Amino acid sequence: MVDLLIIGAGPGGYEAALEARKHGLSVTMFDERPAGGTCLWVGCIPSKAMHHVAENYRGIAQLQALGQPITVGPVDLKALWAQKNNAVHTLAGDVSSLLQNAGVEVKLGHAQLTDDHHILCNGVLYEGKNILLASGSFPFMPPINGINLPGVLDSNHLLSLQTLPASLIVVGGGYIGLEWAFILRSFGVKVTIIEVLPSLLTIADEDVSKRILVFAKKEGIEVLLNVQIGSFEKTETGMKVNLTSDPGRVLEAEKILVATGRRPRVEGLGLDKAGVQYSPRGIVVNALKQTSVPHIYAVGDCIGNPMLAHKASFEGRQVAMHLAGIEFQPDYSAIPAAVFTFPEIASVGLTEADVRAKGIAYETKRIPLRANCKAVASDQTDGFFKIIYDANKVLLGAHLMAPQASVIMHEVAILFHEKKPLTEWKNVIHAHPTLSEIVQTMLHSL
Ligand SMILES: Cc1cc2nc3c(=O)[nH]c(=O)nc-3n(C[C@H](O)[C@H](O)[C@H](O)COP(=O)(O)OP(=O)(O)OC[C@H]3O[C@@H](n4cnc5c(N)ncnc54)[C@H](O)[C@@H]3O)c2cc1C
Q1: Architecture field, domain 334-444
Q2: Are 145 and 232 in contact (CB under 8 A)?
Q3: How far is the CA of 250 from the centre of ligand 1 (A)?
Q4: How many angstroms separate the CA atoms of 418 and 26, rounded?
Q5: pLDDT, tens digit, 9 for 90 and up, residues 354-406
Q6: Domain 152-260 in CATH: superfamily?
Q7: For this structure, is 118 an active site residue?
Q8: How far is the CA of 43 from the centre of ligand 1 (A)?
Q9: Angle between helices 206-218 and 175-186 (to 10 degrees)
């Protein structure tokens, strides 16, 4: 009998496997594709590889605006994918080597529970003392007429486009839709975002939501809010969207990207056969990530929001450590999140609306990126840094819009994690000129 059987070799599954091996547990892990999960094959890594390419394009545009005689031919999408493919295959090789060197048995194929101690994969039955479900999530496609037409893509299909569409309608103003909208706009695609809600990026702080709308429009991205979709239809040149919120109004583009969120993957796992409780919102777990069957655990996207790779990894490690007799609880309040738009958005802790809803007495401070020398030097001053803090000046939430915000936010995440008055960090010296100095400017202002 194996100590730990794992379904899903994404960040949740493979981090659990590696941690479990460190503690001497035997591990067999199953996945339908080579290890890496959504994050590596179709999620974080492909999108950030393309974000990097887009950043280079924007650098060229900046030089052209300075009058430099640089000309760029039409975008060859297949060639641009090369950056993504290199990154994905390098990292896939790294993950596989790590797992192999650690002694994790990896089986390629669909796996499902047959009862609470057994998993069937490729006709072979495996017995486990403990089981971890890390099956991830899938793109949610809303029930709209025409959603299955070939010109309607989800974030997975987008990666197999052979040529760049001249125009794209992005349905959904969440982080996946926004990231691809900004990336593709940088390559010259005419992008329209349509969102059912009254703002973009609704889970973000309200100042961020308002600002990203301004920046999207500045990029030339058309944004329609409060929109209800009637149907998608094929046209001679591409696709069209009929709006019920504005009868008679039709939007046309070569392709449609549907980015309306993701749902936990709970089907096809044999959960009922093992007596594991779940709902469409995910597999039900307690604080230790035990399901309704205590020796069956679940982590990552399959247990619901927030669906972030680093959250999945920490939960995977938590389970492996628990099995090894070490208790470790991820600090959910201190999980940083990043959105790779232009500029990047990063946050840790609560939004101002969250703080208001909790009835905590608070103050906010906001510094424009224009106050940062490096931002001015590189002519990238769109953005701001906002903090929300309590009466003792302990940080409740931080929200940053700036180039490299995803990197800078980790310093703030440490301040958040420490839960000490921010004034205690005033004397931490920051190098000049750096974008990180915005944190020092903020601390000095308190
Ligand atoms: C476009 C996009 C961009 C993203 N960008 C970011 C980002 O920048 N930062 C971030 O933190 N997160 C990002 N995410 C989210 C991130 O990818 C997920 O949160 C993360 O991958 C979840 O890890 P996981 O281990 O829970 O599941 P997954 O990575 O989804 O892995 C689950 C694995 O289980 C396998 N599986 C499922 N069921 C079975 C079965 N029955 N048998 C065999 N195998 C099975 C699947 O094949 C899959 O490989 C992005 C997602 C997308 C789609």
Answers
A1: 2-Layer Sandwich (3.30)
A2: yes
A3: 34
A4: 36
A5: 999 999 999 999 999 999 999 999 999 999 999 999 999 999 999 999 999 99
A6: FAD/NAD(P)-binding domain (3.50.50.60)
A7: no
A8: 7
A9: 20
